[in-house]
């Protein structure tokens, strides 16, 4: 039954990819086809969010770090999952069309980068911070993110691997997985009781959905009497509010920690990459907390102004983590001499955030979850570099990219 379900999901996804290609003209380029496929995947996710989640959780990829193929092998399919085959082959076609290096590793990194970016924006629009936008606003944001991603991929298609950008690795080593259950947490004092309740709540959300989270079930998961729980937290809404602030603060500290490793001050686009490592570290440190925060984040994400003081003042509405990243990105864009508009800032941030989120989600719960951790964090650095190059190319500020 499981194999039949996977086959059905593969077939459904590929149907949406093929449908978008039908709108292309006969002289469409390989890059046009790639963008059409990305749009098809996004449409699939928006129209079938339940199937999209199922596709995410069931489509474990093969050992990307170990299978060896030549550049031409991708034409005959990789022998892996059908949807992965589609991505590998369109990446290969784009490289060949652009006259780039006939390098199998380049095919692999470009294909995975495409998957990560499109998955990230799709998941944010169905389950994450963008879920409250109108369908039109979601499509506009998706198109903007695809423009940035396509610009970065196009550089790789034509010229090969992007030179490593600083920081080249996560500071302080790889994060430890702290997947501790609520029932196993200490409850010796008031603070520990509240933390256990919050952990029970996030487990409730991830397992049963946001609408099914209740103080009673959170208390049950934490092994705490309901009457005792109500002594500390008055009802479901208070629990949800405390939970969002609690996890957000943890994620925020992970970003700040990587900024300290990177130098702690404005270093151009490298600050965005440091923050990317921070959020990825948070996701791998606590995958359940990461997914829970994704599902409950409810703040505003569209900046009303480009001015720094306005962004700092709006952090309460955006949430500490996202607001902090927005401010870091704003400073990087300003330092680079980029456009000082809320739209440029918003689209740049959402494109980078989609790539960060997509990689974090796919490597904790999705298709990339079974890959070796060292391989994944090296892969993350290369994918973040592609996104940064795309931002620089699309906004015309290439001076921020090392090696260009």
TrEMBL record:
Keywords: Transcription, Transcription regulation. Residues 35-147 form the HTH-type transcriptional regulator MT1864/Rv1816-like C-terminal domain. InterPro entries: MT1864/Rv1816-like_C, Tet_transcr_reg_TetR-rel_C_sf. This is HTH-type transcriptional regulator MT1864/Rv1816-like C-terminal domain-containing protein.
């Amino acid at each position: 039954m499981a194999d039949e379900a996977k086959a059905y999901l593969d077939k459904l996804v590929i149907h949406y990819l093929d449908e978008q290609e039908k709108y292309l003209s006969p002289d469409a380029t390989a890059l046009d086809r790639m963008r059409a496929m990305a749009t098809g995947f996004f449409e699939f996710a928006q129209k079938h969010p339940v199937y999209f989640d199922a596709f995410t959780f069931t489509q474990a990829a093969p050992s990307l770090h170990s299978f060896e193929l030549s550049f031409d092998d991708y034409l005959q399919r990789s022998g892996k999952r059908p949807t992965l085959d589609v991505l590998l082959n369109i990446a290969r076609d784009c490289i060949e069309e652009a006259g780039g290096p006939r390098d199998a590793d380049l095919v692999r990194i470009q294909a995975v980068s495409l998957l990560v970016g499109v998955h990230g924006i799709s998941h944010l629009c169905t389950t994450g911070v963008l879920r409250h936008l109108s369908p039109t606003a979601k499509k506009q944001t998706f198109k903007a993110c695809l423009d940035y991603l396509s610009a970065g991929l196009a550089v790789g298609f034509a010229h090969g691997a992007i030179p490593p950008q600083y920081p080249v690795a996560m500071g302080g080593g790889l994060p430890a997985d702290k997947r501790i259950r609520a029932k196993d947490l200490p409850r010796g004092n008031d603070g520990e009781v509240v933390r256990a309740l919050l952990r029970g709540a996030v487990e409730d959300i991830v397992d049963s959905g946001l609408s099914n989270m209740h103080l009673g079930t959170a208390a049950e998961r934490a092994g705490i009497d309901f009457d005792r729980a109500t002594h500390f937290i008055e009802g479901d809404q208070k629990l949800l509010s405390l939970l969002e602030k609690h996890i957000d603060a943890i994620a925020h500290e992970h970003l700040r920690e990587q900024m300290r490793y990177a130098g702690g001050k404005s270093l151009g686009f490298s600050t965005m990459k440091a923050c990317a490592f921070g959020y990825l570290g948070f996701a791998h440190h606590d995958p359940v907390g990461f997914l829970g925060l994704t599902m409950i984040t409810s703040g505003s994400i569209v900046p009303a102004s480009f001015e720094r003081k306005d962004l700092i003042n709006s952090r309460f509405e955006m949430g500490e983590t996202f607001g902090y990243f927005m401010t870091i990105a704003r400073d990087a864009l300003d330092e680079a001499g980029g456009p000082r508009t809320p739209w440029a800032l918003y689209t740049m941030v959402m494109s980078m955030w989609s790539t960060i989120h997509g990689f974090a989600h796919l490597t904790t719960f999705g298709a990339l979850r079974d890959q070796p951790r060292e391989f994944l964090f090296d892969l993350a650095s290369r994918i973040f570099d592609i996104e940064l190059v795309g931002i620089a190319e699309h906004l015309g500020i290439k001076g921020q990219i090392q090696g260009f």
